[in-house]
Amino acid sequence: MSDWIIKFENLGKSYRVQHNLEGQRYVTLRDAIANRFKRLFRTTDTASPRSENFWALRDVSFEIQQGEVVGIIGRNGAGKSTLLKVLSRITEPTTGRIRLKGRVASLLEVGTGFHQELTGRENIYLNGIILGMKKKEIDRKFDAIVDFSGVEKFVDTPVKRFSSGMQVRLAFAVAAHLEPEILVIDEVLAVGDAAFQKKCLGKMQEVAAEGRTVLFVSHDLSAVEKLCPRSILMEAGHCEQDGPTSKTIARYQETVVQTAVADLSSRTDRKGAGFVRFTRIQTLDQHGNERAVFFSGKPLRVRLHYRASAADALVNSRISLTFNGWGKTYFLASTELHSDQPLTLAPEGFVDCVVEELPLSLGTYYLGPFIEVNGIVQDWLDAAVTLQVEDGNFYGTGKDYPLGWDGKTVLVKHRWEALNEVLSSRR
Amino acid sequence: MEELIIEHGRIEKQYWGDLWNYRELFYFLSWRDILVRYKQTVIGVAWALIRPVLSMLVFTVVFGKIAKLPTEGSAPYAILVFAAMLPWQFISSSLSEASNSLILNPGLISKIYFPRLIVPAGSVITSFIDFLISFAILGAMMSWYRFWPDWRVLTLPLFMVLAFAAAMGPGLWLCALSVEYRDFRYIVPFIVQFGIYVSPVGFSSTVVPAKWRLLYSLNPAVGVIDGFRWALLRGPIPLYWPGMLASIASTCALCLTGIWYFRRMERTFADVI
User: Chain A contact for B264, CB < 8 A?
Assistant: First the structure.
């Protein structure tokens, strides 16, 4: 297709890394002079500082079409931020080029250039100009910006008296009223309260619906999954995978091996009394091998390791496991549903939850374990481990969901009757 | 839609055009700095007036009364000092503000593209506003002493341009060096402090021995100050042309190399800041 709006052509960016300056953020004049003197008095070649080129980006090539919303994911240091920096012209590429057909506005961080001493009104103008708006444009949109931010009453108050939440809202409001052809967003959704995040997501979708192009860089896989039909996985400076978000996320999770085993000892987002804690969660296939990716319709074994702080047996226990997605639970497995006998557990060990045929469609899910002893909740986590599910021929028809359906869902064996031509289910 | 290409060396080619395209940003950043400056200081505008007046008093007493150095023509010593204090204050505050300007705005530098030249230039503008305010004091002093300038005051704008260049050139050097070497900014106050004694602020440059005068004029501030005094103080003392030309030459050299060095380092600012 020729309707591209951004075209990356063999883009590369290298930095010079000096090893003798490792661990030191800034060069000081003192060191520079000292090094020069050292070199003067040394005769061998080894005196020159050992430096080498580090390629933060290498041969990155892809196209983005007009109106696409594309997610960019990857580990820290994979080159995502460098890519955005080059795109927003903060730093120049070393090789290759980017061709753009439109104005780029980057929200690398909302509130850039906010000044604490200035009033909300003054900051709206300043920030708007910094983000690339014209003064007339801001005059025109001023009321809408103030309205969106919800800080009408404080527009003429210095920003230093704003709560941090209000500042973020104001900053995002300015950014949301940019009208660029290409909007670049980096992790802005990490800030603000839930209601405001929702507003922001709505605004992003609105922007996308207007046919503008959005590049969304985030660590929040579920947000990427929700917003972006297409995603690009960056790995060690190059484009590792480019395609439908679900596939890219699956690829990402394959590369991040540690999702197969979750060490829970450092987690603090727990509920419960805490005499018994989950220590580790493993996701295993039918052969007992640890895996991060599973297939619809195939067996899944979730091994929940736990430890109690006392040596007594855990009488009258209940353990359950929820399979969650973006803000909702798809299904729940619980020991009391499996057997009505009271459960007594050793003070330390593991229990396995076995799902013979995984009834989930393509997507990323989160497992939430729960343990209760004698009527007291001991430990409860929302998302202890991620579970990546790939298409696995659940119905035996080669299809796990109808053509055009691309969302997460629970798969249930079923059949249709009273049709002229009765569809035959597998069972 | 016009197509934009980002590649190595491209920014170089469109730099001066971009400087024009980003003029609104330039205007607003200067506006911000001025606004903040006068909001933060409790005494506000008075601050721009108090500093030069106090220095002027000290210099008049030390050089005029204690050291009994000669004035130029019939000008009261206080006016002789203040005519120099005006441009000096402008140059010195430009230097300190410009050298810090990029370090104090790391968010801007590392997140948004624009010609970086805007930032130090903006701080020079901010100092220029102070400079204009201080002119009110000169006016007040002149009416107190009933000492009025003649037609030569009309040439003052030319010397203001020279002052601007003399502030900008070294300012760009200091600014780029401060980003590059983090300990450089500790040197800047020293340079500024040192400068007031090697520039003819407290005394007339006629007291400098004739054989050293040309060499002395290589200091850009000397040309600016001599020019200001010539324009503001009527009297028999002619402008020392060789010195003035030497100052203009060194100012131009500093300005051009300043822009060159700044432009060279600018590409890496976002990476090191």
Answer: no
Indicate the pTM of the whole model.
0.69
B248: which 2 tokens?
């203009």
A93: which chain B residues are within 8 Å (Cβ-Cβ)? 6-8
Cβ atoms of A224 and A218 within 8 Å: the answer is: yes
Find the residue in A nearest to B181 (Cα): A28
Q: What is the ipTM of this complex?
A: 0.78
Q: What are the boundaries of each domain within chain A? A: 4-255, 259-390
Q: Which residues of chain B make contact with A27, given a CB cutoff of 8 A? A: 180-182, 272
pLDDT in tens, A359-402: 998 878 888 899 999 888 999 987 788 888 877 778 877 677 77
Rounded (to 5) percent helix, strand, coil in chain B: 75, 0, 20
Are the C-beta atoms of A296 and A391 separated by less than 8 Å? yes
Rounded to whole angstroms, the Cα distance separating A71 from A208 reads 13
* CATH architecture under which domain A4-255 falls: 3-Layer(aba) Sandwich (3.40)
- The rounded distance, in Å, linking the Cα atoms of A379 and A369 is 8
CATH number corresponding to A259-390: 2.70.50.60
Nearest Cα residue to A172 out of A85, A87, A88, A114? A114
**Hey, is B227 helix, strand or coil?**
helix
- For residues B54 and A66, give the distance between their C-alpha atoms in angstroms, rounded to a whole number: 63
Q: Do B108 and A130 touch (CB under 8 A)?
A: yes
Q: DSSP letter for A126, please.
A: H
Which runs of consecutive H residues, i.e. helices, occur in A150-236? Answer: 164-176, 194-209, 221-227
- Separation of alpha carbons A250 and A245, rounded Å: 8
Per-residue b/e over B124-138, b at no fewer than 16 CB within 10 Å? bbbbbbbbebbeebb
